[in-house]
Structures are given as C-alpha cells and as structure tokens.
Amino acid sequence: MNEPLLRDLVPAVIGVLVRRGADFAAAEDAVQDALVEAVRVWPDDPPQDPKGWLVTVAWRKFLDAARADTSRRRREVRIEGEPMPGPVEAVDDTLQLYFLCAHPSLTPASSVALTLRAVGGLTTRQIAQAYLVPEATMAQRISRAKRTVSGVRFNQPGDVATVLRVLYLVFNEGYSGDVDLAAEAIRLTRQLAAKINHEEVAGLLALMLLHHARRPARTGPDGRLVPLAEQDRSLWNTRLIAEGVDVLQTALTRDRLGEFQAQAAIAALHADARTVEETDWVQIVEWYDELVRLTDSPVARLNRAVAVGEADGPRAGLAALAGLDPALPRHTAVAAYLHERDGDPVTAARLYAEAARSAPSLPERDHLTRQAARLNAQLRS
Questions:
Q1: Cα dihedral 360/292/267/328 (nearest 10)
Q2: Farthest CA pair distance, the chain
Q3: I need a labelling partner for 357 at 20 to 30 A (CA). Which of 12, 66, 231, 374 fits?
Q4: How far apart are alpha carbons 66 and 86 in whole angstroms?
Q5: Of 64, 85, 106, which residue constitutes the final position of a domain?
Q6: Does the pLDDT of residue 345 top 60, yes or no?
Q7: 324 in a structural domain
Q8: What one-character-per-residue DSSP string does 262-315 give?
Q9: How would you class 49 by CB atoms within 10 Å of its CB: exposed for 0-12, middle for 13-18, buried for 19 or more?
Q10: pLDDT score at 155
Q11: Host domain of residue 57
C-alpha cells in the first residue's frame, strides 16, 4: 500500500471532481471515502492507473451522496452522468486547491486544518492528534472551513503569500501525535514549488530545509532544549543543508528578494559555520536589515538585536533592543542573554527568571529557568 502516493494524489483528484461540477466540500468528502476504499482494495488488487481509479471511485461516491440527499436534487440536474471510461483530465488544479485552502475568509487555524486535510491527505484524527484537540472539535473546524469556501470558484486568482504563511504555520508546529508536521510542511511546499515558479515558494522551501537540518541537535537526550550556540553540529543533516542552500541560491538569482529568502539566507549563514565562533554575524546583521526593510517586523528587529550584540558587542545589542516594545515575545529572554554577555549576571539572572514565567513552551521555560539557576549558583559561590 503506497500511502505517500495516495496523499500526493488527493489534491489533484479533488480538483477533477470540482471541475466536473461538485462543490469543494462534497468533493473532499467523496475523495476521503475513495481513499478508505483504496486502503481496502489496493493491497490485493493495485490499479494500473491510481489517479484514474481514485477519480472514478470518488465520482461515484459523490453521485451516490448527491442522489441520496434530497436537498441537492436541483444540483443533480446540472451534474452530468458518470464520464465515459478513459484517461483522466490532464488539467491539474492542485495549485488552485492550495489557494482555496488559504482563502482570506478563513482563519489561520481553519486554513491550516483544511490544507492538511484537502492538500495533505491527512485524516481528521491525525490532524486532531497533531494539534492536541479532540477529534470532534477538529471535524467541526474542518466542516466549517469547507462550508465557508464551498462557493469559491477555482478560476479565481489566489494569493501565494497567504499560502506560504499557512505552510509556515504548519512547519512551526514541529512534531506531535503520529504526524511529523514539519516534514509534512516540507512535502507540501515541495509540491507547491513543482506547480509554480515563484521565488518566495523556493525561499520558504529553503528556509524549512535549513531549519529542519538542525532538528536532531535541538534537544538533548533528556529532552532539554539545546540553544544554537551549544548544538553538536555534527548532528546537523548536511544533505538537507546542501539542498536548502542550492534552492536558495537559485531563488536569489531571480533578484526578487522576499522575506522567506532573507530568512533562509540567515539560516544558511548559521549552517555554513562549522563552529559558533566562525559564524559571520556581520553578514547576518546585513540580512536582518533586509528583512526589517521588507517586513518592518518587530520580531525581525528583536532577532536583529541579538545579531548586533554578537557582531558589535552586547552594549550595541542592548541599544538596538532599547527601541523595541518590552511586551514582545522573548524580549526579556534576549535582554537577559545580552546582559549576561555584558558581564551583568545579577540583572541577567533576574531577567531569565522573569522570561521563564512567560515562556511560550515548556522546553523553553525549563531552559530559561536553568539559565537563571546557573547564574544564581555562580553568584552564591
């Protein structure tokens, strides 16, 4: 049973059904039913044309549901009978499906869930487990999302930037349940890159690959968070790094810089350093300058302050930090780090403890708590 192939075919099959006259919600339901049938039938009788098989079965499922639903009788008048056997339409609406799942009428959470279901081919249960919510809650979220976009036509223009933000949200969830969301986001971004020649799609793919390459070194054997400066770089995946750098370099040659390309360039500079001492912080600051210019993002400015502190000294970093809102997430943690670098362990210990209380995750809270404890122990000795 080739599960990856099944999931790769899902968006194209949904697209065929929609093009034939099914609305998106009904098409997605029919394709899910066809996938269940495929899991049952294919191990003993694999089809020669998997996509054609799925289209045929999903179309039958859709027609059965339409005929059984009396509220859809008028729609049945518009639906042609089952198409004659033969090759499936050559049109691939996968790209339009990405746009539909990232429609501006949807909330970010709904877009993520719908993308994983309709484009990624994950089950509702898998998505619910990944986001640590009850399956019924996720089913309702997906159903509402499908109803919201059911009237959107496939021929409407889509927004690539919104699709990329949705995929990046998926990537940043990491791993939970039995689904590796970071790997799934990379798969979906690869698929998108194969459908559209867009420099920021390539930039996001490069960024994901470069970040994912460091994943084995991010946590210690005991589950503790390991900061970038302390990571065992021999654990980094050099194959993913090489691929990410190659994808980025190709994107940059188009001379249409975007935020994901800038972030990927920063990640590439970190990946290029064999030791933390070899990190080219001056170049990293320059790329953060580009990122701030492109986005005016407070988070980019915060990360730039860290880079300035490494390139020009902690006092310069603290000066860059002074102009930012202290309520920014991780602002206090950055301030603690820069004060420690500046030789002020008392202030640093206090700020580490303060940052731990507002940390967004348990591993980060534990890390900051240990930093505060380490400095306090040094002060007592």
A1: -10
A2: 84
A3: 231
A4: 23
A5: 85
A6: yes
A7: yes
A8: HHHHHHHHHHH-SSGGG--HHHHHHHHHHHHHHH--HHHHHHHHHHHHHHH-HH
A9: exposed
A10: 65
A11: 3-85
